[in-house]
Structures are given as C-alpha cells and as structure tokens.
Design goal:
- 2 copies of one chain form a homodimer.
- Chain A has 172 residues and is mainly alpha-helical.
- Chain A contains 7 helices and 2 strands.
- The first copy, chain A, has a domain of 55 residues.
- Chain A has a two-stranded antiparallel ribbon.
- The longest helix of chain A is centred in the N-terminal third of the chain and has 30 residues.
- The radius of gyration of chain A is 19 Å and the shape is globular.
- The two termini of chain A are 35 Å apart.
- Chains A and B meet through helix 1 and helix 6 of A and helix 1 and helix 6 of B.
- Chain A binds a DNA duplex (30 and 30 nucleotides) through helix 1, helix 3 and helix 4.
- Chains A, B: This is MarR family winged helix-turn-helix transcriptional regulator.
- Chains A, B: It comes from Companilactobacillus baiquanensis.
- Chains A, B: InterPro entries: HTH_MarR-typ, WH-like_DNA-bd_sf, WH_DNA-bd_sf.
Chain lengths: 172, 172
DNA sequence: GAGTTTTATTCAGGATACCTGACTATCTTT
DNA sequence: AAAGATAGTCAGGTATCCTGAATAAAACTC
C-alpha cells in the first residue's frame, strides 16, 4: 500500500530526471560550437559503444544487439564512416556481410568521452553512489527482461535473445 | 579517491540505464499500434506536462519554462492542437500573445498517462524506493543549477531564472 | 544443378524533435 | 510619430528512428 506511494514518488522523480537531464543535454549541445554531440545511448553513439565492447561486428549483429532496424543501423554506420570513426569492409567468408571496425580515432573518441563523469554525480556521497549503482543494476536487469519478453518470440527471435544477453555484460 | 571509482560505476550504470530504457521505449512504441507515444520528457509531452501544472501559459512562457526555442514550442503546440489536446487563443490584453489551454481530452490524457508507474520500479523494495527518490532529488537539483548557470547570464536572462525555478516545483 | 527461399545490405520516403534565420504583427519607449 | 523590443510564424535544416521495396549473395530443395 504505502509501497505504491513510494513508487509514485520515485516515478515522478524519474520523469523529472528524464526531463531535466534532456533539457540540460540540449543546452549543452546548443552551447557547444562543434556539433560533437554523441549521447552514447542513442544513434551513432550507441554503435560506437557496441563496437568498443566488441569490435568487428557486422551491421546485422549491431542491429540485433542494439534492437535497431538494419536500415537505421546502416544510416548510423555510414555517418560514422564519414567522420572516420569506423570502417566498413565486406567479409570474405560471407560476401553479403559488412564488417565494421573502429578506427583509432573512433577508439580514442570513446575513451575520452566515456571517461567523462557527469557533474551531478559529485553531489552524492559514497554511500549514495553505492545505493544508486545497486538500484540501477536491478532496474536495468528488469528492463532487459522486458525487452526480451516484449517481442513476440518467433522461433527465430529466440536465437537473438542469446545475443541480447551479452548486452548485459557490457558495463561491468 | 575510492569516491571516483564509485562515481565511475554509477556513471556506467546510468549510461546503461539511458540506453536500455531508450531501447525499451522504442520497442514499446513499435508494438503500439496507435502511434500514441508521448514520452513526457520531450516534445509535445513536455508541453502537456507544463500545462498540467500551470494551464493557460502563453507560448513564450512555455518556451522559457521548458528551455525550448519559440519555434519549437510553436511546432509542438500546433501538433497538439491538431490532436485536440490543447487550444490556442489570442490574448485580449496583449494581442501578440497566444494563450494555450488544455482541453478536457488533453487533461484526461495526462491523467491516465502520468498515473502509469513503470514496471521496473516494482523490483525495488520500499527502502530502495526511498533511496532512489532521495538521490534523484539531489541529482535533479544539481541539474537545475547546471541549467541556470550554463546560459550566459545576460541581464535579461536573469529574470528568466525566476521562471525556471518554478520548474523545480512541478514534481512535488 | 536449377529454382526457391532466406539473409545482409541498400535506397527511397516519412515521422518526430530540435535548431537557426528571416519575416510580420503588436506593444512600448522616447 | 519613429524606433525598438516582443510574440509568433514561415522556411529550411539536422538527427534519430521507422516502413516498404529492391538487390545480391548464400543456403536449401528436389
């Protein structure tokens, strides 16, 4: 009962967090002269992150790993190629496949970018940081389950779930 | 020192959270036959949320409140008008201004939508929910400060900060 | 081995969320 | 009344996604 109230309170704070962070993100992007925006949890950033954990994936593998359509994936990869952050090359074993590799510049970009710690974490104590990490772990796992279950599990999709579980190990 | 490690851990989890939630969001949107997606922390949803706290704002006020350009705001408002969720009418006091009001349908939509509690909160204990709420409060406050400071504070901008502080009171 | 089906990728086109720049009304100041 | 500030609009652009339709290579079928 009171649990529900607590859930509502947290839910409100989460909406607020989403909104304010999004706003802050937009402002940062506006003020940033170079359009270097790569929020790492969408679009090109997502691809980069995936490759940093597992270089040399094919476009198709990227798409299934990231739950994107092949077309979206192709679009992001092409943009990254233009920026010299990744390379595309046809596989010799299966000439249909295109294998994507990070360039040095790409790897470098990920390193500098992912080492940035958002300012707002500095207001938290050690104890709070531990709590947050712990809570987010639970939430993320719950979301992974949601993702795996939400797709009508065709016999084919089942094999993809295995891949999706790797996703889980990215951020350890 | 060890604080930095904890910050890094939390930062990683936060990136993961952003990514997985974004993915789950996209999937939900795909499976949803009607394209009723309104993530509430961007675009049209943001406007709706603002009006639910404070009906009858002008477009300009919405824009400053939400840190959007007047043009973006106009776009979202027009889309909402088409969906019969809000109404536009010229102010009598100042004929330049357009006052935006929620329709019954709009209010209804917000009610049903904002009463939804994300599934992933159900995996948390009462204690964890309290911790999360507490932590997010701190983080959000820190982000508000960031937003207020990040804009080159022209003399004019200063007056807007007052408005932005209202933003803060939305989710109590 | 020829014919069909399945895959991996691409091209074309569409939606939404933002943005900047260039107007047009309508106050407000001087 | 002229000049300036303010609220909105129109036009056009970028990024992230999507669906649908086409192609080429591999795998399966008989």
């Amino acid at each position: 009962m009171s649990n529900l109230l607590k859930q509502k309170a947290a839910a409100g704070k989460l909406i607020e967090f989403g909104m304010v962070r999004h706003t802050a993100d937009n402002i940062a992007q506006r003020n940033n002269d170079k359009n270097e925006h790569q929020s790492f949890f969408q679009g090109q950033g997502k691809i980069l992150l995936a490759l940093s954990q597992n270089d040399g994936l094919s476009q198709k593998e990227l798409a299934t790993n990231l739950d994107l359509t092949a077309q979206s994936t192709a679009e992001f990869v092409n943009k990254l190629v233009k920026k010299n952050l990744v390379t595309k090359e046809k596989s010799d074993k299966d000439r249909r496949m295109t294998v994507i590799h990070l360039t040095d510049l790409g790897r470098q970009k990920i390193d500098t970018e992912s080492s940035k710690i958002p300012d707002f974490l500095e207001v938290l104590s050690d104890e709070e940081l531990d709590q947050l990490t712990n809570i987010l772990t639970k939430i993320n796992n719950s979301l992974y389950d949601e993702i795996n279950n939400s797709e009508q599990p065709t016999l084919f999709k089942k094999s993809q779930q295995i891949i999706k579980d790797h996703f889980r190990d990215w951020f350890l």
